Amino acid sequence: MPAPTRPGRPGELDVDAILADRSIEIIVCCGAGGVGKTTTSAALALRAAEAGRKAVVLTIDPARRLAQSLGLGELDNTPHPVNGIDTAAGGSLDAAMLDMKRTFDEVVLAHTTPEKAAQILRNPFYVALSSSFAGTQEYMAMEKLGQLHQQSKADGRWDLIIVDTPPARSALDFLDAPEHLSSLLEGRFLRLLLAPARGPLRLMSVGFNLVSSAMNKILGGQIITDVQTFATAFETLFGGFRQRAQQTFNLLASEHTTFVVVATADADALREAAYFVDRLDEESMPLSGLVVNRVHRTELPLSAGRAQALAEELDPVRHPVASVALQQHAALMQVIERERILLDRFAAARTRILTTRVPALQTDVSDLDALRLVGDLLAVQG
């Protein structure tokens, strides 16, 4: 559900207004991979902290560059304070990187007995599920969000959580992950594996044994045994996954959360952004707007055609630098025009989406000063 237009030029996303709104407790940055989503999340968190918010940023990106840009040796599942920020306004900044398996382990440890937890944690099927199963990363990102939100309510350590979502190829994976994982863990296959152990279903044991025998031949006896052992130990947690999935969805849809879709001025990235925007709208999720990173600009008022013509008029032997510069400018103007067409087409199809465009930087974002610059550019109006 697109947010109403805020102060500034019509159609422009006012980032500072979002960060200053104390009713907003969660900002979710989503979009395709490689569009600067992690950098945007960190820059928003830093800007919020230096404006007085107690912020924590949760990233899913394992690249060390984010930890380096925040002045940290490394990031892990536990939020660590970021030093070197301006705390004059009373804000603070912590950062964490999702450890998918550790988060899953924490869920098991928190919601079952020590004996059951030990049995689950050493089960080979659980190890595979918690480490590499499709959709687990997206679900555990939301589990971690729930943990951080619960902690913030309990001790007031944070008043703003910014989530950098996984770079899923499909724009729908992030919203569907809780449902997919809870459906897997409560699905018919695992229920069938539990059937022989239950009183009323003992009558089915002969038929089940025939099916189990066939599966043993196809998959291997140890795999079936591991899954059966896991299902029996995990049974007490089935309902909890479903409940937390619903709580997570409700939290994301509440007035205390807002989504920011991140893209670049590229056809594929904008296509992914369009899927996100449309899906969020369908689910009545609170969408603030679109951040378009790495937009090319120039202050030189010279068209591509004119620059190319001037380059052709010059003798490249006598004026090699000027000739190359004009050709590069002509190529840049072509890129700018292509991006303008793509962005105008996106805006025409989704007229209510507020947008901010961040110019392409000449250097990598590798420290707090660079993140501050990105934050400044995110907040520029006009």
Automatic annotation (TrEMBL):
It holds the Pfam family ArsA_ATPase. Signal peptide: none annotated. One of its GO terms (molecular function) is ATP hydrolysis activity. Residues 25-295 form the ArsA/GET3 Anion-transporting ATPase-like domain. InterPro entries: ArsA/GET3_ATPase-like (IPR025723), ATPase_ArsA/GET3 (IPR016300), P-loop_NTPase (IPR027417). It comes from the Bacteria. Transmembrane segments: none annotated. PANTHER family: ANION TRANSPORTER ATPASE-RELATED, ARSENICAL PUMP-DRIVING ATPASE ARSENITE-TRANSLOCATING ATPASE. This is Anion-transporting ArsA/GET3 family ATPase. It comes from Microlunatus parietis.
